[in-house]
Design brief:
Elements lengths: L5 H25 L2 H54 L5 H84 L3
Length: about 180
């Protein structure tokens, strides 16, 4: 094979550089879109995690409320039991003890009712958070879908040219000396 002249070597190098420049232009058309898509996907995943955590908190609130309602029923049954025992008391000391037990059960009921109110307020605040998070997820999801479609469209438009340029580049690369 004959030695290549400097002009031929420069011509081959110029051809390779032209191909690389066009490939760079195709990548530039995509711009920041791939990173924006990845960022939106990460953000949506974070929002989904937050949504799931808040949902589990709401489930815990519901469980706490149910537990407190059951304890109220238990204390009401105790009060009824104490009232029925009041009919069979034999002395003042028994009367005072039963009245004290009724009073304690009544205080426990009041405490459970307060806990239910507090937990209900927490649950309502968490529900508002969940609604806001869902709204953010919906907005981000629409934005993600739009950007993904835009990226797919850009990649479709340049796919054939990119494949051809990469083949041409591989050929040109074999003709250029290291």
């Amino acid at each position: 094979m004959a030695a290549k002249t400097i002009a031929q070597k420069l011509e081959q190098l110029y051809k390779l550089q032209t191909i690389d420049t066009r490939l760079d232009q195709l990548r530039a058309v995509r711009g920041e879109l791939p990173m924006e898509v990845a960022d939106l996907e990460d953000e949506i995943a974070g929002l989904q995690t937050r949504f799931d955590n808040i949902n589990s908190d709401i489930e815990q609130c519901n469980s706490d409320i149910a537990t407190k309602k059951n304890s109220i029923l238990d204390f009401q049954k105790l009060i009824e039991k104490y009232e029925s025992q009041l009919e069979n008391i034999k002395n003042n000391r028994e009367f005072e003890a039963l009245e004290k037990e009724k009073e304690i059960a009544g205080l426990e009921i009041m405490a459970a009712e307060k806990a239910i109110r507090d937990t209900t307020k927490q649950k309502e605040m968490k529900q508002e958070l969940i609604d806001a998070t869902q709204e953010k997820m919906d907005v981000k999801g629409k934005d993600l879908e739009f950007k993904k479609n835009e990226l797919i469209e850009i990649e479709k438009e340049s796919a054939e040219e990119k494949v051809k340029l990469e083949k041409d580049r591989d050929k040109a690369l074999t003709k250029v000396e290291e």
